[in-house]
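A quick aside before the break. I want you to see a complete sequence-to-structure record at least once, exactly as it would be stored in a machine-readable document. Don't worry about memorizing anything.
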Amino acid sequence: MQSRQIDFSKGSIRKNVWQVAAPMLAAQILNLLYNIVDRIYIGMLPEEGAYALAGLGLCFPVITFITAFANLFGLGGAPLFGIQRGRGDMDEAGRIMGTSFVMLILTGLILTGAGLVFHKPLLYLFGASDQTYRYAGDYMVIYLIGTVFVMIALGMNPFINGQGFARTGMLTVLLGALTNIVLDPVFIFIFGMGVKGAALATILSQFLSALWVLWFLTGPKAELTLKKENLRLSLPRVKRILALGSSSFFMSCTDSMVQVACNKMLYLFGGDIYVSVMSVISSIRQIAQTPVMAVTDGVSPVISYNYGAGNNKRVKEAIRLITWVSIVYTTAVWLLLFVFPGFFIGIFNRDALLMEKAIPSLHIYFFGFFMMALQFAGQSVFKALNKAKHAVFFSLLRKAIIVVPLTLLLPYIGGLGTTGVFLAEPISNVIGGTACFVTMLRVVLPELKEREKTGPA
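That is the input. The structure line, written in tokens, reads:
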């Protein structure tokens, strides 16, 4: 597979987006395999599968938190990088990439140390019992050792995609995912390592992905490479990256908050079995939203580049495309999950009690999924156009301001119990998605119209 560079200034927008989104879709589906394959194999462990799955679910908030920092500097720097490329300022684009890389390494080292010291009280805080902690702790300690690899692989890959090398970006994830698929059953079953084997397979896979990223970004094929002179921290540049990356950061952090709140309330009102149910539903959600996130990620570098180049007509065309694709896809997924819930739950575990609890919970949780299309579309446009304040606000609105309070309150209202936990998600989808998309239309479209008259700022 050749590393062919895409020119975002030419050809149809649909073709540009598809050229980036198709490899990203393949990459994100493969990226799911890091944790999804772990959960599938762990769920197959004889007699202890359901509890081991619950233990793995308790690790999600920590893993999500690490991902949040990778997104903070990767998805914060990449749009700025793309805008500067569109303006032809390659020197500044290189400095932005170098700054992001240094911050990823430093943050990864800090997270590793803090995680190893505090992981036990955190897991109990997140809803672990003595029965589930032994699985969660075993997985978490090994995973934390590979934090720097995760930061490099996830955080620097957007700079490969941002240069138009979408296929190379896909290969970053392909390398790690295939390694994980091969090593998982070997470590878990053949070597009898259980959840420790799943964690070891994951960090070795991320190590290979990180090596691939560094090889490409320091080699001759990249348009812009990591250079020593750019590996210096500049406070104004760091602030710009933090401002834009805060949207993705808070989105991931609030995901972590939601997972913690859900696990705590489900354990309180339903016990360990409902923590397992949420682990399965979270896995299904990841699968369901991956394609639409690939398209929104695919449209982001196209929008950023054309915005920087002053091609406002192409920016508007890209916004229309992402909106309709998101709406059609999320509606189709919602219908599939409503009609065939048992099939998707059974991918992870076929325990009769878990299936009994999970089917009605899944119906409730995904009821408003089609409204997430508006959140996906609006959020991707705000990030691509460097609308940091709007992106951050709507990241916080849906999860921190709506979902978490509802998750903590609804179970106590009218005896809803665990049903109240699952109701919080569709309510937030309707309110948050609508608010984000309507605001995007009212803010972005008038600005693009004005730019057509006066030219880019």
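Two observations worth writing down. Residues 13-450 form one domain. The chain has a mean pLDDT of 87. We'll return to this after the break.
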